Please model this.
Amino acid sequence: MTEADFLNYKKVITNFFPKFKFKENTSTLHSLYFLVNNSFSLCNILLDFEKIKKDDNFFDLIIEYREFYARLLVSVTLNDEFFTSNVVRILVEKLYRILYGYYNPSKSIRRIRTSARKNLLRGTNLTDRNAEMLDRLYHVYSELIHDTHPSTNTKIDIQKRLDGNLFDLKKITQDLQCLENIFVLELFLKLIPDLDSTDTAIKIRIKSIFIH
Model:
């Protein structure tokens, strides 16, 4: 990804969401854009080079994880903390289930999807720090979804809602960076453990992700 890609994204946002407060959030949105693209591209590397195969029990979850990351680039422009918090929490839960599938290859995708969250980490071998971080992120975004603050205004004022103060994009970006770190350390580097001796094509793809 390059700066030109970000400028194209900015152009799309400006055209489709002309009232989005881009100037006030350019730096943070820039960071979020590249973070989303990094995560999307890391998933693509694992899929394109068959580090995750179609018969792996978490293959579908990786695709879903990648797609929900892409949805963030639109959801943040809606100026609705509830929508974006939902997407982030889905990402956290997807990663829970991806890691559970990775550590339990004999489990069916149905079992992975339906297992209670409290049982997922028990079936993995995450570091204590990453397990605690994943758990924290889940609880933070669950609270943002469920602990709403209803308005006393009984009228549906769409313009007022859309013109309200933007939620904390910087915090969301920081939390997503934590999520990406867990993904890299607990999955990506275990599926591609020796980057120095890996295929040249993979090295080039990885290098292209982080040059921007």
